[in-house]
């Protein structure tokens, strides 16, 4: 299954109402469309704009409304932290604060190679929970809290703008005198609500303690003193956001009897696959950008298919080009993606091609427009679709499907599904 992130687009008036996918030369995708079945797909639901994380959950057959708990856990898993269900994971940034604790740079001058800072932070002792802190790409890092009676229902300490003090972390939901939010009543009543509030309050305290102690450590760290000498902003404060509890996902293999592998550069996608129990491969040269080494990724996927029934090959480039509003780059990466599909046509039985969501060049962000999807393989029913695009796929035999139904459809075509009833 080849997922070209954000590849789907909208009709562009200046291009005669065509989309980048319609303009790109993609003989292999078109060849497969001719021999397979096409359709359009709402990865989450019609009118619901997907994030890459919720979309990939759905594309692996998980209901995102039941399984998604926030971005933090997926990034932490993608960063290689061995998570346990119940851990609370946050996305983190190294930022710069001045003497008055006002944020002067949310990314600490795009500081990088920060593992020494993370190592120093890891030595801190917190009351009430253990933690794992790890630097990831650039100014980014990830924090995982582990312990009893902790909660992800806490606010961020990242105000998302500079010139402000990082706000104190607080329980995310507050009951104001007698007014209780409607949802705890649905999810288990007042008792549960009281516990959730207590856990959120405890977690807020732990995190505020972490923020203060890590600031003390970072302030004095040699790496930051060195940066100050060079006139560079210090990475002296950790901004936290996107907290989520690590969900328990039923393993992909158990769900579909398919042994799955994942080839991706994007930490978020790797994290989703990791938490689904799939084999996640790190490919040298896979950058998660338009300059990625697609040949190496294709080779890695083919290698995995020797020992796995299913491989997800994720290509991030089209989404990046779309966020930048760069039409040429988008067409370029689509054509390069098409180039590697050739390697799979002779080597594997079933091929599916899709996008996790639409990212129109004109909008520079995700939208809820359905994406084209095609499945080709032995015995797959064909239709009249002769090319792969948003427009042509809408005429295909798959009709309009939900993202979470794609793997069941593929598994059935592969002879892996079980009869419902007698
Ligand atoms: Zn995406
Ligand atoms: Zn995106």
Written account of the structure:
The chain has 422 residues and is an alpha/beta fold. It folds into two domains: 233 residues, Alkaline Phosphatase, subunit A, CATH 3.40.720; 171 residues, no CATH class. The chain is built from 16 helices and 13 strands. The protein has an eight-stranded mixed beta sheet, sandwiched between helices. Strands 3, 4, 5, 6 and 7 form a five-stranded antiparallel beta sheet that branches. Strand 3 and strand 4 form a beta hairpin. Helix 5 packs across helix 11. The radius of gyration is 23 Å and the shape is globular. About 3% of the residues have low confidence. The structure holds zinc ion (2 copies). The site of one zinc ion has 7 residues, from helix 3.
Named at the architecture level, the CATH assignment of the largest domain is 3-Layer(aba) Sandwich
Counting helices, strands and paired strands, the structural category is alpha/beta
What shape does the CA trace take? globular
Name the beta content range: 15-25%
The multimeric state of the shown protein is: single chain
State the helix count: 16
Total number of strands = 13
- Main sheet specs: 8 strands, mixed
Which ligands, by name, code or SMILES, are bound?
A: zinc ion
Q: Output the CATH homologous superfamily of the largest domain.
A: Alkaline Phosphatase, subunit A
What strand order characterises the main sheet? Answer: 9-8-10-1-11-12-2-13
